Automatic annotation (TrEMBL):
InterPro entries: 2-IPM_HCS-like, AIPM/Hcit_synth_CS, Aldolase_TIM, DRE_TIM_HCS_fun_bact, Homocitrate_synth, LeuA/HCS_post-cat, PYR_CT. This is homocitrate synthase. CDD domains: DRE_TIM_HCS. The lineage of its organism: Eukaryota, Fungi, Dikarya, Ascomycota, Saccharomycotina. NCBIfam families: LysS_fung_arch.
Length: 380
């Protein structure tokens, strides 16, 4: 899994998210933030989608970002001719290969698909631009059809092939098998695009890399059609565990939170409470037993180090599950001096109130301060 690359599609798949509308300025802001984070590629909406989409694509190409700029088109010469004039570094073409898409979407057979794929690939390559060919709805396509089309596009020198779980139906075992099989028929890099309808987007992405794929499509916060695709942040959480040095040296992980806030505000959603890394409680420890061990060594209950992402760990002590180690830490923070036994006593008082109602930090602080005052008052 070392050496993987990211194709961020917030400005293509992400535009297909229910709430998304990015004006030119917002697209440029997001493109710059993605580039600063360090994604390898930025994928943009097709220039034939609308007049403004084409202009925005040209504007982003002119920014001179480090990330390569891609646009995403149907497997059709009409689209390809417009795409190569925008200034992009690469073109991603896609065509539906499942029986659903062949019957209810474009109505073409596999021979027609192969013929137009070859034509588009040769044309885009002749312009000195990178080209990726992908099948749409790959996991509900006939395997023989799929392998044939990939063999064909590989032989005409496509730069990457992609597979897409368009409906989010695949599970990791199916992903592993398909990538393994595909690797035996193509010589180029493999890219993967996973929707999250059944909650498998990140596991599928990870498994695809294990099976030998090289590139993963992501969106910030996982936005996209329906409930979206692989979230950039969630994939980072998975990958930093698998390839810590690579991930830490390649991506500016401290910029993740701001990038997510930027996109969340643009599409008017909140960052989910259970979001990996940036969810509000992602590094909050609560139970007394956890708090004690975290204070001794954070790795006891943390697989991710919040510092790697510019986040901070928090020990939630204002509750009835708290323990005296957490309270002792709070006592120290308040610059008060209590013995261990006194900390245990005051913890009992806190738990007692915590049994009656939810507590906040002020409640705990005043219990501690009152207790401290009481034991410090000379007895007459
Ligand atoms: C769609 C197309 C796509 C394309 C994926 C890709 C999908 O919006 O239906 O080009 O890799 O999910 O199949 O996003
Ligand atoms: Cu998609």
């Amino acid at each position: 899994v070392e050496n993987f690359q990211l194709i961020d599609s917030t400005l293509r798949e992400g535009e297909q998210f229910a709430n998304a509308f990015f004006d030119t300025e917002k697209k440029i802001e997001i493109a710059k933030a993605l580039d600063a984070f360090g994604v390898d590629y930025i994928e943009l909406t097709s220039p034939v989608a609308s007049e403004q989409s084409r202009k925005d694509c040209e504007a982003i190409c002119k920014l001179g970002l480090k990330a390569k700029i891609l646009t995403h088109i149907r497997c059709h010469m009409d689209d390809a001719k417009v795409a190569v004039e925008t200034g992009v570094d690469g073109v991603d073409v896609v065509i539906g290969t499942s029986k659903f898409l062949r019957e209810y979407s474009h109505g073409k057979d596999m021979n027609y698909i192969a013929k137009s794929a070859v034509e588009v690939i040769e044309f885009v390559k002749s312009k000195g631009i990178e080209i990726r060919f992908s099948s749409e709805d790959s996991f509900r396509s006939d395997l023989v059809d799929l392998l044939n089309i990939y063999k064909t596009v590989s032989s005409v020198g496509v730069n990457r092939v992609g597979i897409a779980d368009t409906v989010g139906c695949a599970n990791p075992r199916q992903v592993y098998e398909l990538i393994r099989t595909l690797k035996s028929v193509v010589s180029c890099d493999i890219e993967c695009h996973f929707h999250n309808d059944t909650g498998c987007a990140i596991p599928n992405a990870y498994t695809a890399l294990e099976a030998g794929a090289r590139l993963i499509d992501t969106c910030v916060l996982g936005i996209g059609e329906r409930n979206g695709i692989v979230p950039l942040g969630g994939l980072m959480a998975r990958m930093i565990v698998a390839a810590p040095e690579y991930v830490k040296s390649k991506y500016k992980l401290h910029k993740l939170r701001d990038l997510e806030v930027l996109v969340a505000e643009a599409v008017e959603v909140n960052i989910p409470f259970n979001n990996p890394i940036t969810g509000f409680c992602a590094f909050t420890h609560k139970a007394g037993i956890h708090a004690k061990a975290i204070l001794a060594n954070p790795s006891t209950y943390e697989i991710l180090n919040p510092n790697d992402f510019g986040m901070t760990r928090y020990i939630h002590f204002a509750n009835r599950l708290t323990g005296w180690n957490a309270i002792k830490t709070r006592v120290d923070q308040l610059n008060l001096h209590l013995t261990d036994q006194q900390c245990k006593d005051v913890t009992q008082k806190i738990k007692k109130l915590g049994d009656i109602r939810p507590l906040n930090v002020d409640d705990v602080d005043s219990i501690i301060k009152d207790y401290h005052a009481e034991i410090s008052t000379p007895q007459l």
